[in-house]
Amino acid sequence: MSVYRRQGDDLVHKRTISLKQSLTGSQLTVPTIDSDQNLDWRYDHIIKPGYERVYTQRGMRSQKDYNQRGDLIVKFIIHFPESLTAEQREALAQILPDD
User: Fold this and answer.
1) Nearest alpha-carbon partner for 33 in 55, 53, 64, 49
2) What is the DSSP letter of 69?
3) Which of 30, 54, 56, 66 to pair with 41, CA 20 to 30 A apart?
4) Each residue of 34-71: pLDDT tens digit?
5) How many CB atoms sit inside 10 A of residue 97's CB?
6) Is the CB of residue 3 less than 8 Å from the CB of residue 13?
């Protein structure tokens, strides 16, 4: 399985995170094509399904101008649990807002 999908000069990396990580924050290491320059990213905001983080000039070298690079786009996929216990459901109902 490939780590990236190429879109022109941009590279797209799909990253799956847990529902807990999406709601409470985490620290992630994002791989780059320059294997010695992985990107560490700490976030403390909510990541919603479909969220994308763009790292400019971290993609492929341009086919038209070797001095230019595309972007690295990280697309987040939120993994929801398959089931919850009654206690977990009740706890979430108490702490999460209705809106």
Assistant:
1) 55
2) B
3) 66
4) 877 889 999 999 999 999 999 999 999 988 888 999 99
5) 4
6) yes
